[in-house]
Amino acid sequence: MTTRDAILDGALEVLRCGDPLTLDAVASRAGLTKPGLVHHFRTKEVLAVAVVEHVALRWLDGLRRYAGESPSPVERLRAYIRYTMTEDIDASDLALLADAKLSVQLVALWDSTLSPWIGEVIDASPADRARYRAARLAADGAWFDRALGVVSFSHDDLADVLEVALSLTVEPQSPGGEPGPSAAPPSDRPAGS
Predict the structure, then answer these.
(1) Which CATH number fits the domain that encloses residue 171?
(2) Is 174 within a domain?
(3) Engineering a disulfide at 81: which of 24, 139, 144, 155 sits with its beta carbon 3.0 to 4.6 angstroms away?
(4) What gap in Å lies between CA 11 and CA 58, rounded to an integer?
(5) Closest Cα to residue 38, out of 29, 30, 47?
(6) Which UniProt keywords apply (predicted)?
(7) Is 131 within the bounds of a domain?
(8) Rounded to the nearest 10 degrees, what angle do helices 44-67 and 23-30 cross at?
(9) Least reliable range by pLDDT among 52-56, 132-136, 188-192
(10) Is residue 81 part of a domain?
(11) For 146-184, what is the HEC assignment?
């Protein structure tokens, strides 16, 4: 593991503990002096951006596991729903909220990485778009609730919620009466598992 990776892991641990993301806290958690940390991340702002990039890329890897090869926009949304409801989520997954002064920049960075996965690029009727958005909002709620530790569902209860959210993403029937390509039964396992 590189020093940079150790610093980013230390920053995630700081966030998991609910502590403010400061250079001192991250240096301590990473086993470095503050000057040692500043050698890699000149400012708290540079560190915060790197942490959000790190978390967003971790999410992207997970989403790709759930979506499989060449996913459609609906399959990407379904992967997002599965990820938020089945993966280990904690306070570090809210890294984009780590610095209020940088919130616009951090949210834009998060959005630029994950926007293809949240259903906004799906070409659909207003009614279908509303269903996709409702499913996405359920996923967002699961992400925030799980990251904050607000609600603790049993595995079975969360599986039921996942099934309902995924049912909102079943594509409309084709003219021949066949379900669309994303009408496959819901699964909480990554593609290829």
Answers:
(1) 1.10.357.10
(2) yes
(3) 139
(4) 14
(5) 47
(6) DNA-binding, Transcription, Transcription regulation
(7) yes
(8) 60
(9) 188-192
(10) yes
(11) HHHCCCCCCHHHHHHHHHHHHHCCCCCCCCCCCCCCCCC
pLDDT for the residue 119: 84
Q: Is pLDDT above 60 for 2?
A: yes
What is the rounded average pLDDT for all residues in the chain? 89
139 CB-near residues (< 8 Å, 6+ apart): 80, 81, 83, 84, 85, 118, 165
Distance CA(38)–CA(36), nearest Å, equals 6
Name the pTM for this structure.
0.85
Q: Give dist(CA 77, CA 114) in Å, integer.
A: 10
Residue 130 Cα distances to 45, 72, 74, 125, angstroms: 36, 18, 13, 8
Q: What's residue 153's pLDDT?
A: 86
**Which candidate, 119, 60, 85, places its Cα nearest to that of 189?**
85
pLDDT band per the 50, 70, 90 thresholds, residue 171: confident
In a domain, 12, yes or no: no
Instruction: Decide: 81 and 139 in contact? Cβ < 8 Å.
Output: yes
Which CA distances in Å does 127 have to 2, 130, 165, 167, 169? Answer: 49, 5, 15, 14, 12
Number of independent structural domains in the chain: 1
